[in-house]
Amino acid sequence: MATAEERLLEWLRDAHAMEQQAETMLESQISRLENYPEVTAKLKEHLEETRRQAQLVNECIERRAGSSSAIKDAAAKMMAAAQGLSGLFVGDEVIKGSLASYTFEQMEIASYRILVAAAETVGDTTTAGICTQILREEEAMAEWLDKNMPGLVRKYLAREETPGVEAKH
């Protein structure tokens, strides 16, 4: 049976892998989005946040005398790459990408809530503070997606109904 300290370290490794996955997913989306500059700009901004978040989580792991899991990181990146490739085969890639991004943000939010509670339980106020900061950023991204999704859908549908206009991405 794992101790609370061991679980916290395990969950931090999971979070690091999750951020690696997010980075790969965001890079894939950004590389193909052409007709939605406001979405591209927000994804680029969140990509930089994601890279910083991965570094912060890694620092929490190292401070707890651990190291990130190369296997978990690699598996997460492979899964994200496969998700990115799936966008090539759908006609509504920007919409499917938004749906996937919103869903992923919700998973990240739940993960960081768990990490905050675990860190507080073991008395690691530094990790709790860092995870709270990251949690707020993930909540902000989810809120942005939630707020902007209806407009994105309308723009996509308008583009799709305009002859000679690319709507997919």
Biggest sheet descriptor: none
Net shape: elongated
* Mean pLDDT score: 87
Helix content: over 70%
CATH class: Mainly Alpha
Q: Beta fraction of the residues?
A: under 5%
What's the β-strand tally?
Answer: 0
Question: From N to C, what is the helix and strand string?
Answer: HHHHH
Account of the 3D structure:
α2 (about 35-65) runs antiparallel to α5. The radius of gyration is 18 Å and the shape is elongated. It is mainly α and about 170 residues long. It has a single domain, classed as Up-down Bundle (Ferritin), CATH 1.20.1260.10. The protein has helices at about 5-30, 35-65, 70-85, 95-120, 125-160. Residues about 80-90 have low confidence and may be disordered.
Short description:
This protein has 169 residues and is mostly helical. The chain has helices at residues 4-32, 37-63, 70-86, 93-121, 125-160.
Question: What are the defining features of this structure?
Answer:
mainly alpha; 169 residues; Ferritin; single chain; elongated; 0% strand
What's the topology here?
Blueprint: H1 4-32, H2 37-63, H3 70-86, H4 93-121, H5 125-160
Helix pairs in contact: 1-2, 1-3, 1-4, 2-5, 4-5
